[in-house]
Amino acid sequence: MTREHEGRDDRRKQHSGYYPRIADLADEARHERETFAFDGVDEERALRYARDGLGDVVSLYIEARTAEWDVEFSARELELLHRATNDYLSLWTRCHGVEFDTDTTVREVAEIVLKTHNIVDTAQLVTKVPERD
Fold first, then answer.
1. pTM score
2. How many domains, the chain?
């Protein structure tokens, strides 16, 4: 095998097969965060960010971790999952009128989802927004 082919093989091994989906989810989360405009408390919008954003990120993580084969995420993939998780949690809080940036791993969120079976409850438990009565 030539050095050129070895280099190509190394680049393929840098990321899991989930990289394209992870990158798309992270790009979408970042775009939503950068273009977010607060127009008052919007519970419906918060639910969309939780279910369709954060839920997709966590679902991908759980899918990969429970796959029949060992999936090892690259450092870049973990970084993108972390960023997407926190972007969506930040959007969740902003929809409730609270500007709060979280620093939560996708693993922490996934563990709570597996206990609660509810992404909306998980977003509230992680951020404490909105406050519970």
1. 0.89
2. 1
